[in-house]
Amino acid sequence: MLTLLACTPSKQVKTAANDDNKSMAHSDSRVFTQPYDMRELSNGLKVIVVKTDYPGVVSLQMPIQTGSRNEVEPGKSGFAHFFEHMMFRGTENYSQEEYGAMLKEVGADQNAYTTDDYTNYHVTFINEDLERMLMLEADRFKNLKFSEAQFKTEALAVKGEYLKNSASPFSQLFETVRKNAFTQHTYRHTTMGFLEDIEDMPNQLDYSLEFFDRWYRPEKAAVIIVGDVDVEESHALVEKYFGDWERGNYSVEIPVEPPAVGTQSHHIQWESETLPMLGLVFRGTSADPTVKDKAAIDMLGQIYFGQNSDIYQDLVVNRQLVDALYFYTPDSKDPGLIYLLARLTDKENYPEVHQALLDTIVRSRSETADNSKLNDIKSAARYGFANALDNSEAIADMLASVVQYNRDPEFINQQYAQLDQITAADVKWAANKYLVDDGRIMVTLAQDESIDSINNDFDLAALVATASEPKIAQYQVTDMTNTSDIVDVNFLFNTGAAQDPAGKKGLAALTASMITQGGSATKSIKEIKKAMLPMAAYFASQVDKEMISLSGRVHREKASEWLDLVMESLLNPGFREDDFNRLKTQQINSVQTDLKQNNDEELGKEVLYQKLYPGHPYESLNAGHVDDLNSITLDDVKTFYHEQLTQANLNVGITGNLASAQKQMMLDRITNELNAEGVEKVAIGKAPELSGRHVSIVEKQTMPTAVSFGFPIEVNRSHPDWVALWLVRSFLGEHRNSNSFLYQRIREARGMNYGDYAYIEYFPSGMYRTQPAANLGRSEQIFQVWLRPLRSNTDAHFATRTAMYELEKLIANGLTEEQFTATKAFLSKYAGLLLKGQDRVLGYKMDSGFYGTEGFVDLVKNGLDALTVEQVNAVIKKHLQMDNIHFVFITKDGADMKDRLLNETTSAMTYNSEKPASLMAEDVIIQDYKLNLKPSQVAVIEIEKVFK
C-alpha cells in the first residue's frame, strides 16, 4: 500500500470570503501521493496546483462539468461535444488565426475532448510560458466569440466526424445499445448526439450562445496546473486572469432512468467486411466511491473477464474463437452500462462464444471468487495507477478525470479506499445484483442479415439456480492419508492411448504432457518449475492404454503452494501454441530417436504389442506414430482433454499428511471445475486371434540382436488364475532376478546375454527399472519373454530356441514341488517389496480399484496361501501354449535372420571356457530345435517404417 505525503499549504491564502480553501486530508491508504495545493476563488473556481520534479514541463487542464449528460432538451443532443469545437474559434481579443499563431509560437501541445459527464481542455507547454497560457485560456473561457459562418462551417465538420465514427462497428454498436438501454436518461445518446440533431446544428446559433452562457462558468470548472512551477506564483496568476470570471446560476435536473424490465435483442447488419461481434449489456451503477458497487463491478470484470481470466485464455489465447474480449464499464456520474463485448474471428463461433459468456456470468454469480486472485488484481490496480503517473501531463489528465465529479482530487483516493475493502463475497454480490435479466441487451453485428445460431431466449436466474445447486462429485477418491511429511497426490484417469482417435496416435500422451509440462493458464511452465524448485516438488505424467496418471510429490509444509500450481495446471491448462510445438517435437523425437534408434530392447517389446493387436485399440504405441503426431493440432489436444479427462474417468489418490482444508479445496475445485462426463469411450475388446507362429524382423543399424516373443492371454489381475500364472512367470523369468529359470539357463549357464525375463503384465522401461510401475492397468494382457540383446543372429537364434525349449518342457511337465515351494516363498515376501514407497502403496491401491480386487499384497498372499502345485500346473496347461506365438527380432541383418529361421540353420554355441558335459549335450539338442516357421509368416521390416 502506498503512503500519501500530507499536503500542508505553504501559507494561508484568503479569498474574498475570508476562508481558507486548501483541503489537505491525511491518510496512509492513498494512491495519489503527490502533494497538491487546492484553493477556491471567490467566484467558485477550483484551482489545483501540483509541483512536480519533471523539469521545464507544465500541463494545464480545465475540466468543465458539462457533457452529453447535461443535454436534457429535445433536439439538442451533441451540443457539449459541438461546443468543444467552437472553443477554438477565437475571442473578442484574438482571432482564431491569432490564437493559433500564439500557440505555435510557444510550441504548445493543445487539444480537448468531451465525455458523457464533462468536457476537458488541456495544453502542455514549457514553464516559462505559464502566464501567457493562463491569459489565453482565461480569455477564451470568458470572451469566446465566433461568427455565424464559423458556426455553420464547424457544424458541417462535426457531422463529418459523426460519419467518420459511424464507419466503426464499435460506434454503431454503442449507439444502438444506448438508445435502447435508456428511455429517459440523457445517457440514451452518445457524446456525438443523434444524427438528426447534428444535422440541425447549423440552425442552432442562438442556442449555442445560450449553452456557453449556462455551462462555461467558474463554479462548474477547475483549473489544474501540474509541473515545474512555483505554487504561489501559479495561484496568483490564476487569480489575476480568472478572478473576474463571472459566476453563473444555471442548474438542470437530469432525468432519472426508471428500473429496467425485460430483455432486448438487436442485430446490426454491417455492409462492409468486418469481424462479427457479440455483446451482452447490463445496467450498471455510478462511480460513487461512498458505496461499494462500482469497485465490486470493476473487480468482477477483472477476475472473470480480464486478460488472466479463464474465459479470456480459452477464447482469445487458446482456441482463438475471439480476437478481442472487453468488460467495459466506464466511470460515470449516474448509473451507466456494463458492456461485455467479444469480437469473433469467425461467425461460426457465435454459439460457442455465447455459451462461454453465459457460463462465465453464471460462474460469477454462483461461486465465490478466489481471494488470492482478487488481492492480486487489487495490487495490480494500485501499483498500475502509481506507475502510470510518470509525467506531469499524466498527473494532470488523471486529476481532470476525477475532479469533474466534485472538483476534489480526494475522489481518486476515495475510490481506491473503497476498492481496498472489496471482498470476494462483494464480487459475487455485485454479479447477482447487476448481471441480471432485467435490462439485459444482447447485440450482434455482422455482415449477415441475422444471426440464427444464437438467441436471447435464456434465463440467467434459472441458469444460476441450477449452477448453485451443490454439485455431486463424479469421481472416486482413494484416501490413504497418513502422518508422513511427504504428500503424494495421484490424479488417475481411466483413459489413455487406447482412446487415441484414428490418425492421431499419441494424442493421449501429448495431452498429458501439456498438462504437466505445458504450464497453466496463469503461469508458464518456466514459472511453475521455478516455483517448485525450492519445494523439491514435482508433477509428472505416465500414459498407458487405459490409464493416465498425473502425479506429484511435495513436503506437507509446501503442500498449499504446490497444490495451487498443480490444480491450475490440471483444471486450467495453458494450452499455449509454443508449448504444444515444443512438446510435440519432443514426443516425435522420443519415438524417432530414443526408441527406434537408441533402444533396441524396448523397440522389440513395443513392436511385439503392435503385431499382437492389429486393428485393436492396443495396436498403437503409447507415444504415437510419427505421421500421426505430425498431424495432431492443439485443438485435438483440447478436445481430448475435455472429452477424456473427466470426473467420470477420475480416481483421486491422496497419501501423506495432507491437511483436511487443503484436501477439501482440491476436491471442491475438481467437483466444480472439471468436466463431469465426456464422450463414450472406445470399448476394449479381446485381442485378435493369433493363428500360427509369426516373425517380425526389424532391420536397423545395430550391433546386437534383441528378441521378444509372446502371445495374448485372457488373464489380468481380476482373473482367478492370475496369482498362479504370476507365480509361473516369476519362476520362469522374474525381472532382474538372477534366480529365475531362464536367467540361469541362458545368462548364467551359457553367458550369452545380460538377462532373460518373462511377463504377464505390461512392463515398459525394463532396462531402467528393477520393479514394475503402478498404474499400468490393462483389460488385456500378453504372456511375453524378453531376451536382452544377444551378440549375434546366431546367438539370438540359439537363445530363442533355448527359451522355447524350456517353455515346452514347462508346459509339458509343470513345476516340481520344490520349484513351486521356492517361488511361492519368494513371492510371498517380494510382493511387499513392490510397495516399498508410499507412492507405490497408493498406486497399487488404485490399481486394485481398477481391477476390482483386494489390495495387492493381500491378493498375492491370500492367493499364494490357497495354491497348490497341482493348481499351478493346471494353470500352465490352460494358459501357456506353443502353437500361436509372435517373435520379434531387432537386427542389422534382416535377410540373414530370416534365412536362419526359415532354414532351421544350426546355431551351434562356442564357449571360451569349459562347460559341463550335460550342458554341451543339451546344446546339441537346442542348436537344431525346430521353430517350424512358414515363409509367409516371416517379414523383414525396415526401421524407417516402424511406428511411422
UniProtKB/TrEMBL annotation:
Q: Name one GO molecular function term.
A: peptidase activity
Q: Which residues form the Peptidase M16 C-terminal domain?
A: 209-379, 631-825
**Domain of life, per the record?**
Bacteria
Tell me one GO biological process term: proteolysis
Hydrolase: is it a keyword of this entry? yes
Q: Name one Pfam family in it.
A: Peptidase_M16
Keyword terms:
Hydrolase, Protease
List the InterPro entries hit by this protein, alphabetically. Metalloenz_LuxS/M16, MPP/UQCRC_Complex, Pept_M16_N, Peptidase_M16_C
User: Domain Peptidase M16 N-terminal, which positions?
Assistant: 48-192, 481-597
**Family according to the record:** Belongs to the peptidase M16 family.
Q: What is this protein called?
A: Zinc protease
Q: Which source organism?
A: Marinicella litoralis
